[in-house]
Design brief:
Number of strands of chain B: 10
Oligomer: heterodimer
Largest sheet of chain A: 6 strands, mixed
Structural class of chain A: mainly beta
Distance between the termini of chain A: 41 Å
Order of helices and strands of chain B: EEEEEEEEEE
Number of helices of chain B: 0
Distance between the termini of chain B: 32 Å
Radius of gyration of chain B: 13 Å
Order of helices and strands of chain A: EEEEEEEEEEEE
Shape of chain A: globular
Helix content of chain A: under 10%
Helix content of chain B: under 10%
Strand content of chain B: over 45%
Largest sheet of chain B: 6 strands, mixed
Chain lengths: ~110, ~120
């Protein structure tokens, strides 16, 4: 079946540090890949997505590149801010069968001033 | 509003009672999803509606859970004879067309259910 594996948190960084949250997936074919973010007390929001191999999704300074050869979609940001503190979820939607999101377990990011 | 709307936002119920959670998807979205977010359990798929097709109920954890979608729009998730392990945030989401894997799936704020 389809699955998503994320690095366990919490990840604690100082402001302006470089961020990487690793995400790998298992799925047949060519799934679409997503990063969702959940800020404290808020709902899930789409952060970025990529729908085919080698695509790069980007938003709010965050980037992730769809790597088919390594089945990965790692999230990166060059300089984090305190306001980036949240839980980040990697997810996929397969290109066949049920078109529902399969989520990773989430990674909590804490950015300290 | 323009987003996915869910009600109630919070519900406290006694064990054994039935509860209904409502979801109003984004207008024009044909795909509707229910997920459950529990402490330590992550995000769990429950059920998926796509247009007039039969719903995919493969994620429902027991026969106490059911959902319907009337007129291709509003959906209700019903939990009968609630148990304490049903306590969670129930999230509804919708997207333009479920057949396209790249379509963005938008989430509501969730309904926080506490069974006491």
């Amino acid at each position: 079946g389809n699955s998503v594996t994320q690095m366990e948190g919490p990840v604690t960084l100082s402001e302006e540090a470089f961020l990487t949250i690793n995400c790998t997936y298992t799925a047949t074919g060519y799934p679409s890949l997503f990063w969702y973010v959940q800020y404290p007390g808020e709902g899930l929001q789409l952060l970025l997505k990529a729908t085919k191999a080698d695509d790069k999704g980007s938003n709010k300074g965050f980037e992730a590149t769809y790597r088919k050869e390594t089945t990965s979609f790692h999230l990166e940001k060059g300089s984090v801010q305190v306001s980036d503190s949240a839980v980040y979820f990697c997810a996929l939607v397969p290109d066949t069968g049920r078109r529902a999101l399969t989520f990773g377990s989430g990674t909590r990011l804490q950015v300290q001033p | 509003g323009a987003g996915v709307s869910q009600s109630p936002s919070n519900k406290v119920t006694e064990k054994g009672k039935d509860v209904e959670l409502r979801c109003d998807p984004i207008s024009g979205h044909t795909a509707l999803y229910w997920y459950r977010q529990s402490l330590g359990q992550g995000l769990e798929f429950l059920i998926y509606f796509q247009g007039n097709s039969a719903p995919d109920k493969s994620g429902l954890p027991s026969d106490r859970f059911s959902a319907e979608r009337t007129g291709g729009s509003v959906s209700t998730l019903t939990i009968q004879r609630t148990q304490q392990e049903d306590s969670a945030v129930y999230l509804c989401a919708s997207s333009l067309a479920g057949q396209v894997s790249g379509n963005t799936i938008y989430f509501g704020e969730g309904s926080w259910l506490t069974v006491v």
